[in-house]
Amino acid sequence: MANPLRSEVVRLYKNLLYLGREYPKGADYFRDRLRAAFTKNKSVQDPEQIKALIARGEFVARELEALYYLRKYRAMKKRYYED
Fold this sequence. Notes:
single chain, mainly alpha, elongated, Complex1_LYR_ETFRF1_LYRM5, LYR motif containing 5b, Complex1_LYR_dom
């Protein structure tokens, strides 16, 4: 029987992989770290623990989005305002 949380984990992985394209250290670095993190937790079977790991992954996704918005904001500010 397949785990009902599998689709949510796959969705999270794909979302993080998409967000990692613009990572400051490079997409390859991010992809390797992401793959290692998911592989490390591959054997987790407890649904509560899986939900906690999904919540942590969603937190990382929000932090990445904030990082990108901040970088874009700083670029715009630098372009239009003199410090």
